[in-house]
Design goal:
about 220 residues, mainly alpha, globular
Length: about 220
Amino acid sequence: MAVATGVVDVVSYLGLGRVFTANMTGNLVLLGISGGAGRGRSALLSALAVAGFAGGAMAGARFVDRAGSPAAAWPPRVAISLGVESLLLAAFEVGWLLCHAHPEGAALSMLIITSGVAMGLQSAATRRLAGSAVSTTYVTGMLTALMASLADGRRGPSEPRRAAAVLVAVAVGALVGAVLLSRLPLLTPTVSAGILGVVTIIAAGRSRAGRGPAAV
């Protein structure tokens, strides 16, 4: 999912008017910059991304937090939430294709919102699985967690490994997304949709088996 995050942010930043739909820290900064510079259109696009992400995170949290199984298990509601996210990313790809990778006007706004909602759902799902220990969208927090884990030698080795894995995965996803966007722009969003499709299948299988997540 962290790889998918990197791809999504590359597509959103380079293809959707210089906004982030997964990285809200950066997006809020862009919103402030656009507002301060009087760039109303850019500010509006950033605001749409924030609204989409916030709506997805709220809806996702309300849905998955009703799961009654222990936090270590893959609740069925988490699998369903990830399935909805994969469908939203697939819908994004369809819209992206219809716009020939150059959305404008209402189509641009809808794609930003769709992507933002999808990433908000992902954030809520990972929070349900791992609490505040892991986030596939809050990269600043994961970097802080990695440094804190390294500074505190009493913590187990799994925490720094997990945080480092997320950071590397996001960077790899961004690299892959940038390369594909320059060479196969029409198909680039398919990567993130495909990844979430695979994750959904794994989540559904683990929820039926009642097993905990091996990794996020």
